[in-house]
Backbone:
């Protein structure tokens, strides 16, 4: 359905973009729904058949970090993963938006060390770890965060491996025209079944190029990661290896308290979910051969998680018993400053099924 | 228009709440509008005549911290401000959602000290200062944040003054039935021109009651703060004193880098703007006798600021020259982790004028 769809500015694209997506999530406080989040989602198979949807699957989105597992395919397919002896933990880090715990930053630094490189070679920039304890430890020590603490540092370490394997310059590996980025573009086009040469472009928070694509094509790309049977053999093997790494090392994909890590662990890898900035989420469901892509219109991560959880429940990926244990992330409470529950974030009444 | 309007659950209130508000703000990245924020606003005079609006002015909102300047009226009207020698800086703090800089937390602690009280008497709970330098200083010192660092600590110090002045118990001053909260409820009903006894209720982040009211009535309450000519004399005097305090001490209302402080300072108090959580903003425009209330549907503060800035420009409250200096908050840039500008947050094309 989305194969090579014409996605670039069609006459109707602006009107389409401004059509209201349905309300998917409600934020309550006391007896009132205080805020509402609209969004779109698509669940499809590796042939691009949409099984469930809300909103417009042609809506253009930047996939942001939701495609890190697809970008990690380059690490395997280029031969870099074997050449540099990448462990499953490192492959999972290449797929990660991690919390910057010592677990993550130390593994990235050690990985770079094997290449004769250091965090100074990463072009992702720096920010304090998302993990509060890790951030406070740095502050207490009077240390500035380094690029290894950037939530994208594992992905960037992987890019450096690919650059070295390709014999390309290491410096500038984040630029549009660099062989690494061209390789990633090719993978995204093949997996998403579309031509991105004329797609709207932007720069991600970590400096790499982003290409806008229809939400349905993002779902297709995730479906093909889940079910790569129709892909070339080398791609099939890479998909299996990346999926196995995410399933084996869920803590490396995000962090102990994070939605991605908890869902991957709880489902034993039956749901390989990956967050992206601005309310994007992707998932590959290997046992079902399905992919999910969703985008919250306003960019809110709090809503994206609730929608992903609802879809996984709807698709039977989370059992009743698992749902009970995951309640704090499937239907999060809102607490005031003394810890009292004053509201919740939940799937909207009338959530499209 | 909104005088004593029936606001509680009417048959149409659910359908109304779910009707899509217009897109007010766009978040761009490269050549794509990546995210969109919908919302409603009302600009009205002290008679409740709406001059400008978008979305449904009957939509119920919790006013959250946008009504702190209205709540501060109790501090003056009760006689507490005079009895306890409250300075303009303290009155401004009572209106504040402050950054928890030493400027703020030390002033609150000193104020409480004059009452023979300490931050331990505040029932707002604690959180790290919003101001990064202040937060890091606490972390480096190995100190936990105290209630004085809570962004609402000035408001709560004011409530304690009112409780003492009323001869009411200090403990439990945040409860629905406490004389302080009943006094605040009365002020809100009078200024907003409505009966809130049956209104949906919730608990704010700092523990105090919140009452849902139509957005238009919130605008009316702010208009009456701007133009209290129709109010009893004591109310008029209190409005003037609170307005003067906010105008004289803008840094106390928020913090040096914050939207509220910068707008109040830049306009020399011609626009007394006050943020609230979940995408609410209020403003009193004394020279124009107008009030503004706005609510971003999804609760995003980044959008609420841009809408408020646009409305102030539209109403002529910010000159061309001032707008240039305020550009970083009127149309904020989005930067990636190495500081490169990659997008912006701006009023949507087709913003309702």
Residues:
């Amino acid at each position: 359905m989305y194969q090579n769809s014409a996605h670039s500015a069609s006459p109707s694209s602006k009107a389409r973009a401004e059509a209201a997506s349905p309300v998917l999530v409600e934020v309550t406080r006391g007896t009132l729904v205080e805020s509402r989040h609209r969004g779109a989602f698509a669940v499809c198979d590796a042939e691009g058949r949409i099984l469930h949807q809300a909103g417009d699957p042609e809506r253009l989105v930047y996939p942001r970090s939701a495609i890190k597992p697809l970008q990690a395919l380059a690490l395997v397919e280029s031969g870099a993963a074997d050449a540099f002896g990448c462990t499953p933990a490192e492959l999972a880090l290449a797929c990660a938006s991690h919390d910057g715990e010592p677990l993550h930053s130390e593994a990235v630094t050690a990985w770079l060390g094997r290449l004769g490189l250091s965090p100074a070679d990463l072009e992702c920039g720096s920010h304090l770890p998302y993990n509060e304890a890790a951030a406070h430890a740095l502050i207490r020590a009077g240390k500035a965060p380094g690029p290894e603490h950037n939530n994208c540092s594992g992905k960037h370490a992987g890019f450096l491996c690919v650059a070295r394997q390709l014999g390309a310059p290491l410096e500038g590996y984040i630029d549009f025209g660099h062989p690494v980025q061209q390789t990633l573009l090719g993978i995204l086009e093949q997996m998403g079944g579309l031509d991105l040469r004329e797609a709207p472009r932007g720069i991600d928070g970590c400096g790499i190029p982003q290409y806008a694509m229809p939400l349905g094509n993002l779902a297709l790309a995730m479906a093909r990661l889940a079910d790569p049977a129709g892909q070339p053999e080398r791609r099939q093997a890479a998909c299996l290896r990346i999926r196995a790494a995410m399933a084996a090392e869920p803590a490396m994909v995000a962090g102990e308290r994070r939605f991605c890590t908890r869902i991957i662990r709880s489902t034993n890898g039956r749901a390989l979910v990956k967050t992206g900035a601005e309310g994007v989420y992707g998932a590959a469901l290997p046992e079902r051969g399905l992919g999910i892509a969703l985008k919250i219109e306003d960019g809110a991560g709090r809503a994206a998680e609730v929608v992903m959880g609802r879809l996984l429940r709807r698709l039977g990926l989370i059992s009743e018993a698992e749902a009970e244990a995951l309640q704090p992330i499937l239907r999060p409470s809102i607490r005031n400053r003394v810890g009292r529950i004053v509201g919740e974030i939940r799937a909207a009444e009338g959530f499209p099924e």
User: Anything to note?
Assistant: Confidence is low (pLDDT under 50) at residues 4-11 of chain B. Chain B touches chain A through 53 residues (CB under 8 Å). The two ends of chain B are 21 Å apart (CA to CA).
